[in-house]
Amino acid sequence: MFGINYIKVSxxxxxxxxxxxxxxxxxxxxxxxxxxxxxxxxxVPINSVDVPFIFQEVTHDFQNITIQGQITYQLSDPKLSAxxxxxxxxxxxxQYISEDPQKLSQRVINQLQVxxxxxxxxxxxxxxxxxxxxxxxxxxxxxxxxxxxxxxxxTILSLSILAIKPNSETQRALEAEAREELLKKADxxxxxxxxxxxxxxxxxxxxxxNTEIAxxxxxxxxxxxxxxxxxxxxxxxxxxxxxxxSSQITLEEQNSSLVELVIENSKKEADxxxxxxxxxxxxxxxxxxxxxxAITNANLSAEQLISLAFQDIASNSEKIGQLNIxxxxxxxxxxx
Length: 336
What we know:
Radius of gyration: 76 Å
Shape: rod-shaped
CATH superfamily of the domain at 4-166: Band 7 domain
Strand order of the largest sheet: 3-2-5
Distance between the termini: 198 Å
Number of strands: 8
Largest sheet: 3 strands, antiparallel
């Protein structure tokens, strides 16, 4: 009414009030009345702005790649930004008069693209596809020191590259190459696994053979020990038998000497008896047989004498006509 208006901005908007070409009021989140015919308002957004980007570049080996990501920036010096860019608004519609605010994001993207292009052209295709982190570090370091941006009061808060992709034909070729490499690695893994299995089987067989050899050696040692023990036993038995034979031979020699001595003594005794008998017979040489018999019978018992009497009777039986022997005599003789 009568050109007097009221404005209220959010805390993330920096407002500058110009009157007669001079700043009369400024700050973030202000609200005030103003006279529209002689007042100019400048609204500078100071909140962080996320700007996605996607563009194509050429690598060192002339391969096209697509880079996709996001950059976040902020107008940290709104007065400086307002002095270089037109952020004035129409008081009635509250819309920006110029296109500078809309073009600000594109300026940031253009500066970012220049820096990324410098990094990409240093790499070949394979390197660029796996170097997103190193590219972010290099570009982030350069863009934060960019004079073009700092001179407009722009501060880069963060930069991230979400994807780096080749064109479809190149991607298929890389996929085929990677697939072949994976297949080759799979074949190599199978080959290594088979070789490992063969090595393990060989090691197992070697262990088994070594075990069998050790067992055979141990059995051989056992047999040799048994043979040595048997030989020792045999030698001891032989020594024992030899000792027994020696003892027996010595005993037999002693027995032989004893027998010879006994025979010699027997001969001497027999000779002595023969000599005594010869002398005795020589003394009875001229004696009558009857006399000798009588002498011999002198020392006999009654029974022996009766026996001799019966012998004489039996020897002269042809001369005896009749012989009577009483039963009492026979009974007496048989009883004794």
